[in-house]
Amino acid sequence: MVERSLDRHPRLHVERFPGYAPELNPDEFVWTQLKRAVANATPDDLFDLRTLLRREIHRLRCSQPLLAACITASELPWRTDSAETSASATARKIGPWIPRPSGRVAETGGRPPAARCCRSKCNPSKPH
Asked: Which backbone phi and psi does 60 adopt, to 5 degrees?
């Protein structure tokens, strides 16, 4: 099933990530982004916490720069399609620095830039 889907979408490229090396797994940086967003929140109940988490997950899903930062922050050698070298891509760390599509980085004061939604009629409190 996955192979058929990949055959239909030749622009997609599969990368295998090590299973037991957190510093090499981009998903660890996704969790870091979520923890930072929730760290200073004070939800009144589980409903508010769930809403906050859904909103933050939605923000990550709809932000290509944040997702790219999670990948480039890992210590894996990473292929890029831009003129940027692999060394400069992996040297960047997640935090107040978010990569721009041009390969430069922008300081955002610790908060990610506002993400436009990946869908036009989207409700951040409901998952896609």
From this structure: -65, -45
Distance CA 117, CA 3 (A): 28
- Return the H-helix or E-strand segment holding 69: helix 64-72
Q: Spell out where 1-128 has E strands.
A: 97-99, 105-107
Determine the length of the chain. Answer: 128
Q: Which of the four pLDDT bands, split at 50, 70 and 90, describes residue 46? A: very high
Low-confidence winner among 26-40, 76-90, 102-116 (lowest mean pLDDT): 102-116
Asked if residue 66 lies in contact with residue 33, where contact means CB atoms within 8 angstroms, the answer is yes
Predicted TM-score (pTM) above 0.85: no
Burial of 60: CB neighbours in 10 Å, binned 0-12, 13-18, 19+ = middle
Boundaries of every domain in the chain: 2-107
**Can you say whether residue 60 is alpha, beta or left, with left for phi > 0 and alpha for psi between -120 and 50 degrees?**
alpha
Q: Return the amino acid letter for 76.
A: L
Question: Both tokens of residue 121?
Answer: 């009629």
